[in-house]
Design brief:
heterotrimer; A alpha+beta; B alpha+beta; C alpha+beta; A: alpha+beta; 6-stranded mixed sheet; 4-stranded antiparallel sheet; elongated; C: alpha+beta; Ribosomal Protein S5, domain 2; nucleus (chain A); ExoRNase_PH_dom1 (chain A)
């Protein structure tokens, strides 16, 4: 790899110290037992079908048109959306507006290794998945020949980062007042054999992607939905599984996505209310000032008449 | 065109030598040596640039720094930034709207006080290119050693023994600070003393400019 | 109405505020924005801190790695600091490799840390010529609203102060390394460098010093970033950089140094209190 001369570089042969700790290499069975105990309780105390509590807020980045922050316990995602701008380097007229997405991991976001600064395959794949999910959601015919930039920064990755990114992007787009058909929500499920981990952590995702040689169902499915319209905007699957398994997972995800809608609506309504309140306050202040000025004006007019 | 050897021993600045119009193809160029430190600067402009980079209010300044080895490094961007900010205040950019001015600096030899040499050389090259300027500018480097003594225009041996090094750039009209950057840690008093010493020493550099320029052009004052 | 005025007469808009001795965001000239600090919120990193100075938000995370030291300096570890300005923090940046301003900020931060000598790189050595710690410190700007260097230094120092190094044993014969994460020692940090940014503006023959400028003010004062950055560590200056803006007079400089010194103490207090609270919490 060529040396990155735009950054300070460390020594070439450095390795994470975790490589030398005890229990760095664990077998599949050990990992499985760690993730799920005999009673069907996950490592963090959740039941299999239980999602993590979601914290979301808008107005995170002052410099952006719209922005949001989504937290699923340890997974932390920031998103910002900027004003539409003309599509650079394009000669033809495009009827539909475009959405440009970039997903970036912080170098310190992953527990296992340090992320490289240059975008890797995973980041590119996530960017494409995010764009595909957002394209059917946004009323793209409203801004032909323009593009909207959506930037996602993952501060900490503890699984389900694509669904967190989609949720964040939906909120940020709404905050930026980009016209959309519906509230977009997304959820992930990790499949290990018969078990389905809803809203998996990074360890569970890892478990679902490494599989022993036996051909059992394993993989990760992320689904994003426009729940009111009953439409699926994106479906991303990694791993191999049979059809019944996919159908079952879809049912779970459909319900999870629908569950998130009121949460998102609450956040957005709070945002709108806040906007109204500030506007009202500013208007009142402006009125007060104007009245003061008018009073002064009258005084002066009277003085003029006397002289 | 002009080459000059000024005896500045009394003032403890290393001898400066300069040749203007060193390069034949650029609008203005200068090579300057301060002691053994040598920098070469070429200035081109005002010239046509891409629409996207144009500014309707002033000329767009581009500074390119090339190190001796030719390999780019992150520190070079910092040097470019320093020189660009200095030129930006000095050049009357509003006289050249929608154009670009390119300043290219080539490192020749670095024997201490290199960035100061680059800045002085840039000023000479700008004068040589005939660009309108608010004022000229002069950079003076100094080093503070362990005892707190201030050495103007330090040589490599003095730099190695220094606790801190500072470089200040002054304008020719009021001798106010245009740009300044420091390395190492020091007390406030040392800082202000060094600043004053450099401020008075900057007159030597301005005199040198006048000497050089008067060889090929009429100088007011 | 004010927004339109700002667009049509940008300079006059700014001057109108300054002539009434107030800044567009309602602050006095020397008033600084509130600081919010939180440590160790990112568990994936070995140490981390989030700081908010007004709107400017910077997250710093440190990842620990092991490497063989350089042959010419066998007793010295590595401290790699980088500032990331992703496109989401401001509309000025586009995706791609670091811009010039990101590189300049990175250099400034690295210089300040090196000049203040707050970390002795020899502390990072484990075995002579064989093994040393590498501290990858990445500062990510989430929201860039001016005075970026201040925030970067603050979050970096807060993370370094909470960083603990696990115990490493090295077998010289088998060259085997083992790390025990249950035994951790604190990294030795000498002092706490605090950077303070200023914007310098010339208004009707008088020079104005604006402390802790927002990105709008930085832009109006004609700089890429702040015009003057001064840095104090243990009451000693460890860096003073001035670029662009109006020329700096002696009075202005004295004024700035005074503010910077006061701020250094205030920031020190903030960091200390935050770390103390954090330590109380983990010891519970």
């Amino acid at each position: 790899m060529p040396l990155d001369y735009r950054r300070f570089n460390g020594p070439e042969d450095s390795v994470s110290y975790k490589r030398f700790t005890k229990g760095y290499l664990k077998s599949y069975d050990e990992l499985y037992k760690e993730s799920l105990d005999d009673k069907g309780v996950r490592k963090d105390g959740r039941a299999l079908s239980e999602a993590r509590s979601l914290f979301a807020r808008t107005d995170m980045v002052s410099q952006a048109k719209g922005s949001s922050y989504v937290e699923l316990r340890k997974t932390k995602v920031v998103c910002s959306v900027f004003d539409p701008r003309e599509i650079p380097h394009q000669n033809e007229f495009s009827q539909l507006g475009q959405i440009f997405c970039e997903v970036k991991f912080a170098p310190f976001s992953c527990p296992r290794r340090r992320r490289p600064h240059v975008p890797d395959a995973e980041e590119k794949a996530l960017s494409v998945a995010l764009r595909k999910a957002l394209e059917p959601t946004v009323c793209r015919h409203m801004f032909p020949n323009y593009q909207v930039d959506v930037f996602i920064y993952i501060l900490e990755n503890d699984g389900s980062c694509l669904s967190a990114a989609i949720n964040a992007a939906g909120l940020a787009l709404a905050d930026a007042a980009v016209p959309m058909y519906d509230v977009i929500t997304s959820c992930t499920v990790a499949i290990v054999g018969e078990k389905m981990f809803v809203d998996p952590t990074e360890a569970e995702e890892n478990l679902a992607t490494i599989s022993p040689s036996t051909p059992i169902n394993h993989g990760i499915i992320t689904l994003s939905m426009l729940s009111e319209l009953k439409q699926i905007s994106d479906f991303t699957q990694v791993g191999s599984m049979d059809v019944e398994c996919v159908v079952k997972a879809m049912d779970i995800l459909d319900k999870e996505c629908a569950r998130l809608v009121p949460l998102m609506q609450k956040v957005l309504v709070a945002n709108v209310l806040k906007c109204f309140e500030t506007r009202k306050r500013l208007e009142e202040e402006a009125n007060e000032k104007e009245q003061l000025l008018n009073a002064k004006m009258d005084e002066w007019k009277k003085l003029l008449k006397f002289t | 065109m002009g080459s000059d050897n000024t005896d500045l021993k009394d003032f403890k600045l290393r001898p400066m030598k300069c040749e203007c119009n060193y390069l034949s193809k650029s609008d203005g160029s200068a090579i300057l040596s301060q002691g053994q430190t040598v920098a070469l600067v070429s200035v081109n402009g005002p010239l046509d640039i891409k629409m996207t980079n144009q500014s309707i209010e002033k000329a767009t300044l581009e500074v390119l720094f090339s190190s001796k080895g030719g390999k780019p490094a992150i520190g070079d961007r910092y040097k470019e930034h320093v020189i660009r900010q200095t030129c930006e205040t000095a050049i009357l950019g509003s006289l050249y709207p929608r154009t670009g001015i390119t300043v290219t600096i080539q490192e020749m030899e670095d024997y201490g006080g290199f960035l100061a040499c680059c800045i002085n050389c840039t000023c000479l090259a700008l004068l040589n290119a005939g660009l309108s300027m608010r004022h000229t500018f002069a950079a003076v480097a100094c080093a503070i050693d362990e005892l707190g003594d201030i050495q103007l225009d330090p040589a490599p041996a003095q730099l190695a023994a220094a606790r801190a090094t500072m470089t200040f750039v002054f304008d020719s009209r009021n001798k106010t600070l245009v740009c300044g950057f420091t390395e190492g840690s020091f007390s406030e008093d040392a800082h202000s003393e060094a600043l004053e010493r450099c401020r008075s020493a900057s007159q030597l550099v301005f005199d040198f400019y006048k000497d050089i320029v008067s060889k090929y052009s009429y100088v007011i004052g | 109405m004010a927004e339109i005025y700002k667009l049509i007469h940008p300079v006059k808009y700014f001057n109108d505020y300054l002539s009434r001795k107030i800044r567009p965001d309602g602050r006095a000239f020397h008033e600084q924005r509130n600081i919010k600090l939180n440590v160790n919120s990112i568990k994936a990193a070995d140490a981390s801190a989030v700081v908010k100075c007004g709107n400017t938000t910077v997250v710093c995370g440190i990842k620990l790695e092991l490497a063989t030291p350089k042959a010419e300096e066998p007793d010295v570890g590595f401290l790699v600091t980088n500032v990331e300005l992703p496109p989401l923090c401001s509309s000025k940046y586009r995706p791609g490799p670091p811009t010039d301003s990101a590189q300049v900020t990175s250099t400034l931060v690295a210089d300040i840390i090196a000049n203040s000598k707050c970390i002795d790189l020899k502390d990072l050595s484990i075995v002579h010529d064989k093994l040393a710690w590498v501290l990858y410190c990445d500062m990510v700007c989430i929201d860039n609203d001016g005075s970026l260097v201040d925030a970067c230094i603050m979050t970096l120092m807060a993370s370094l102060k909470t960083l603990t190094l696990p115990k490493v044993t090295y077998d010289p014969e088998t060259e085997e390394i083992s790390v025990d994460t249950s035994v951790r020692t604190k990294l030795n940090v000498n002092g706490l460098p605090v950077a303070t940014s200023f914007a310098l503006y010339k208004h009707e023959q008088s020079n104005i010093v604006l402390a802790d400028p927002s990105s709008y003010e930085e832009e109006m004062c004609g700089g890429i970033g702040a015009n003057l950055i001064t840095c104090y560590n243990n009451g000693i200056l460890c860096g003073s950089q001035k670029f662009g803006g109006c020329n700096l007079s002696i009075e202005c400089e004295e004024e700035a140094l005074k503010i910077a010194k006061e701020r250094a103490q205030a920031v020190e207090e903030v960091v200390d209190v935050c770390i103390k609270n954090y330590e109380l919490e983990i010891n519970k």
